Every structure is written in C-alpha cells, then in structure tokens.
Amino acid sequence: MFGNLGWGEVLVLLVIGLVVLGPERLPGAIRWTTGALRQAREYLHNASAQIREDLGPEFDDLAQPLGELNKLRGMSPRAAITKHLLDGDDSIFTGNFGDPAAPSGPSPAVPPVAPAAPEITPGPVAPAAGPAAGAPESGSAAPRFDPDAT
Question: Which residues cross the membrane (predicted)?
C-alpha cells in the first residue's frame, strides 16, 4: 500500500507528528492510524472476495482486461516506442545494431563513457564596425565564444 514510502519519509512523518501532537498524544494517533488502515484493508479484501464469489467464473473474464491495463500503466515512453514503432527492436537505444546476440542494454561491468568535449577558448572581441556578435570571422571555422554569455 505504501510501497514508495521509505524509512526517511517515515522518520520525517514521526518527527512532524511529535512536534504537532506532542509526545503524550503521538502513540494514540499512531495506534488509531494503524487500526484505521488495517480496517480499510480488511474491508477491501472482503469486498473483493464478495465480488469474486458473486461473479464466479466471470470474475476471471473481468480480471483479464484489468491485467492488460496494469501492463499499460507500467509502460514507459521508451517501452511504448520500442513496442509500437520499432517492433520490439531496442537496438536504437542500446547501440547493438549489428549483433542480435549482444545483450540488450549496457554492460553492468563497464559504465558508458561520454566522449570528451572539445576545449573552447574565447576569441578576440569584435570591433564595433565588425561582424555581428556570434557570427564567424572571415577565415575562421568556428563562431566566437563569449564566456560571460553562458
């Protein structure tokens, strides 16, 4: 139910509860909250058992589309593109273009290495009557770099 709640969040909630409720009322509030959650869980379990009992074998027919919806719910944009546009071929994401036997994903032992960025040095300041700012100088292949503009 609270699968995304970690120990850090629980500790923060306890500290906030201690500050707001005080040390004398905090244990009672925790007991009330756990009892309410336990009762809600029991009600949901009984309701699903009652529906399963009333529908009988038709419940499985109802559960199948719900299972498909859960699959769609967990689909990421990358998985959707891979499944529907690339017919399951995820080589565009993994880089394994020619080798179908290669594992689909980066090797866990070797982290990916980014290529080194070229070093950019600031160029000379253009005179007032010179070319527009950022335009390459005549004879220069790269535009000037202004370190104050970044």
Answer: 6-23
123: number of Cβ within 10 Å: 14
Give the domain extent around 82. Answer: 57-93
Counting the structural domains of the chain, the total is 2
Provide mean pLDDT across the span 89-109: 60
Quote the CA–CA distance of 103 and 109 in Å, as a whole number: 13
pTM exceeding 0.85: no
- Report whether 65 contacts 77 (CB < 8 A): no
Whether 132 is covered by a domain: the verdict is no
51-93 per-position pLDDT tens digit: 888 888 787 777 777 778 877 777 777 777 777 777 777 777 7
Q: Classify residue 149 as left (phi > 0), alpha (psi -120 to 50) or beta.
A: alpha
In a domain, 130, yes or no: no
